[in-house]
Design a protein that fits this description.
The complex is a heterodimer. Chain A is of the alpha/beta class. Chain A is built from 23 helices and ten strands. Among the domains of chain A are: 114 residues; 70 residues, Rossmann fold, CATH 3.40.50. In chain A, 65% of the residues lie in helices and 9% in strands. By secondary structure, chain B is α/β, with parallel strands linked by helices. In chain B, helix 3 packs antiparallel against helix 12. Chain B is elongated. Chain B starts with a helix and ends in a 12-residue tail after the last helix. The chains are: A alpha/beta, B alpha/beta. At the A-B interface, helix 3, helix 4, helix 5, helix 7 and helix 10 of A face helix 3, helix 4, helix 6, helix 9 and helix 10 of B.
Chain lengths: 598, 596
Amino acid sequence: MESLKKLNHYLKKYKGAAILGGIFLTGANFFLIWIPVLIRQTMDEVEALGADESAEFDSIITILFSSEAGAILAYNSLLLIGTVFLYGILLFATRQTLIVSSRKIEFDIRNTIMDKLLQLPQRYFSANRTGEIYVRATEDVGRVREYYGPVLMYTINTITRAGFIITMMIIVNPELTFWALLPLPFLSAFAYWVSGFINKYQLIIQEQYSRIAGKAQETFSSIRLIKAYNRIDYEQERFEEESDQYRKKKLKLDLVESLFHPTLNLLIGVSVLIVVWKGGLMVIDGIITLGNIAEFVIYVAYLTWPVASLGYTVNVLQKSLASWERIDEMLTEPIDILDDEKPAVEKKLKGSIEFRNVSFKYPGAEEYALKNVSLEIKPGSNMAIVGRTGSGKSTLINLIPRLFDATEGEVLIDGINVKEWGVQHLRKSIGYVPQETFLFSTTIKENIAFGVENASTEQIEKAADQAQVLDNILDFEKKFETLVGERGITLSGGQKQRTAIARAIIKDPGIVIFDDSLSAVDTKTEDAILEHLRVKLSDKTTIMISHRISTVKNADTIFYVQNGSIVEFGTHSELIKKEGHYSNMYQKQLLEQELAEI
Amino acid sequence: MKQKKQSEAADSVLIRRLYYFFHPYRWWAVFAILLTLTAAFLGTVRPKLTQVAVDDHIAIGDIDGLLWIVILLALALVGEFFILILNTYITRWFGQGVLFSLRNAVFEKIQSLHVQFFDKNPIGRLITRTTNDIEALSQLLSDGVVSMIGDLFRIFFILYFMLVMSWELTIIAILVLPILFYATFWFKSKVRVAFLEVRDQIARLNSFVQEHINGMMIVQLFNREKKQKEKFESINAEHRHAHIETIFYFSIFWPIVEVLASIAMALVVWYGGARALMDQVTFGVLLAFIQYVRQFFNPIRGLSEKYNTLQSALASSERIFDVLDTENEVYESELPKKLEKVEGRIDFENVVFRYNEGEEVIINDISFTAKPGELLAIVGATGAGKTTIINLLLRYYDINEGTIYLDGVDIKELSLKDLRKNFGLVLQDNALFSGTIHQNITLGNSDITREQVIKAAKEVEADNFIKKLPGSYDYVLSERGASLSMGQRQLICFVRAMVYDPKILILDEATSSVDSETEELVSRACQRMMKGRTSIVIAHRLSTIQGADNILVMHKGKIRETGNHRDLIEKNGGIYRKLYELQYKDQAVGTSTAIS
């Protein structure tokens, strides 16, 4: 109920359209029932005319175009066509108001969700699987829309149509009404059961489908091994097992689905049958006319879909509500990295960084990713972090632009706790090149100017030049207007990284962070980039994470991180003398380099 | 070339080829069609029966007669009910059967293809062939064709009953049909275009969302929240617009169908009313016609929908047959030789290999011999052709020139199975499958007992850690072994190689991704495995290959140096020596000089 209230909140804006749609639909149904009524009336009048012995009915032409009977027939038929047109127009208007509003509400909800996503802290994205967030922001919205669209429309339709028809039926004959309507509740219940079963079973089938795909993936990606061990037959057997499971599950669903239409057909048929039998007896007794039977047969046909849709609608409603709850959970998630109450620090950043006994634990993780890390770097200095994959290097630097907040201890920039800086200001002053280069599928120009409003062409070109990617870009046919990603060209790993570097340095930041951002760049280009940075960014604090000694060896201080702690630090030559982890890593790389160069 | 030829193939060829898979079910299909025919008759006879009830019985007050008709009606109704259920289920059943065999055939075919096929086609595409493309046929096979026939039967019967009752009224009733046809085709063409637009917009919207969930960190780091929000709103607005467009067509089409059906009814009442006054048409006929007019519209709509299904199914089947037609480029020998007892001697004689005619040579005139029980090591930089040697030996690819012998027999003369069963292969990426540890070791070979598995595991010292896992050998690996360490996964692969007790052991960079803790264990395991076997080892770490009987130093597809460790180390300025010095310069090798 709470959910329904929240859902209806979105409806407020479109209240007018929704009410109007309801009125249109009611009107449509009002005119709809005139069709059987007019048919009955015509038939009754024809019967009466036919009973009049004095009248002569010889020629079809005379009857239709000149006689009194012809006038009655034409009048009734035109009236019928007129009502039908009104019905059609109102139906059109209903869809144009109710369903169109549902799309507009969907639009609003999607915007709300995107807005929320943009504000949610990284903590949320690391605690929830990307796929799940994605489903909430896409499929779940679609299901919620069904509440405003089909659910609302079918509900109004069922209520008004059934209301009018049943009223008319009762006016004609209450007893016959009772008998004619008897099978309909079963129809509703059956539709509810079937659509519920289908929903549930489709999930099971989906799962089995992924198992088939998973099996194919497993086999195809290990094909060498499978061939070497002559296991093709066994793999075939295993695949066929999954395939067979799929067939069996699918057939179970098919069985239920194959019940649906025949049962619908049967229940409606039973209704008609009752009308003919009971109604026939009543006609014989002179209680009702033959026209009434025709009328009832049409009424029953008109009731079929609204009654069946009732069961279906209940299911859709349940699904909409479940989806809404998932969305709502996301919308009510707290946004915890907020500028503090105190006026935020917005001054120009000099670039000294200090970690004081910082420990950090990812949400839901058991172990600390960082353990009691302390370090200090002066403004304008060069710092490098090395260590194995998973040792905590990226975690450490993520605390600087407040992608995460330290669990214990504090991170200070220019002697001020990062939490006291304005978040936007802080991030604006930091140029960050992430480990996994992420470019948006838009033009190169837009990607580079991502963090700067109204960047000039010169600025963009300069940044591209400093990142050593300008020549590559100018080689593309559309130069800076080249689209990146699926719809555009695929950049090489190195080109991507350099574009990301350009994106970071165009901001003219006080602190530059490179998270292993030169890994896909060849050493010659790397040297050029580093040289540029040394000259241009000499007054800026730079932090470099790298696996490559060549990248880090000139840093003022190198930190070696292992299992979330700093285990060695110093300059390159100091660390080599130590003959510890760093020196070990250095030796290995020399070897690999030599191997590659033979 | 092949692809082009395929796409030119007529649809009729595709249908004939699909029929091959359908063949076992053909009598069921005939049965289903008979059922459809019966159901179509029972469904359409009911309005006729109501006519009889009204005219012949109700009109003259014949209650007994009415009862009979009602009983007939009930029988027709119940009969149609059961026949429809049976019919739908049967068609779905054989549809699933065809899909099942088609899916298995595609999987079998892909699996059997030469390894190069997998290099050329992304795995994702191959998966699509075995899943999506087969699913696309589902609708066509499970109820497409049969229900299309059913729709035609229905139209036929309705027309028949109407004509029998009154041909004049029939013409009046179907007067609106041309308009209905026109409206349907107009709607179809409009909606197809609109739907394409909707699909594009949904894809755009979803990929924007996906991209921004993935790249949220960048958006936030670069303070782009507001801008991206605006961008999203404009995409979202276009998405909304596309939907509203389709709503427009739907909100016009459905009322038109309803209006047309009612106009038909009005015409029937108008003209039929007049005819009734002349006593030429009865009330029962009017009642039946009113029902028929409503019944008539459904099959016509159904038919137009199925045409689309057919189109997309044909597109998918084309892709499926494309895979089924792919030729295997590694041929099985027609009269394979049998090796009685394999000693494990390998000879490469002037072997040349290139991926495709006219392309760069990958293996350039290579000859070497590995005697039974010997350890042969191959070293060289990435891309030197080390792994290709193994691919050629196992006949993943066939060589262009020269000969490869196993125990003096050309490997092309052996059956693939007989050739490959002599090798134990351990690869760098230590592939594990979903399933238990036991299954991963035996690869489903039920001839291998648990005792054999444990024995092999003990030999490579993997037994210790496996025993500690919950369920030990029956421990189910999740996500292909993600819960195990690299070293543990490697050891399982070793056990797998051991349990098959191969004559020849191949380790392709098998120790390079192991962490330092298990390094010891793994290299000890290696030593044990090699005992009594011909071994071919590709390795970065020179320590594993120091004891090799023969070392091939490869560079750009050629063997540049060969000999044992001692020979090679003495070769001044040699590649191997340089490598060795690099690796061991910190350790007291004594004679070696420091590199500059």
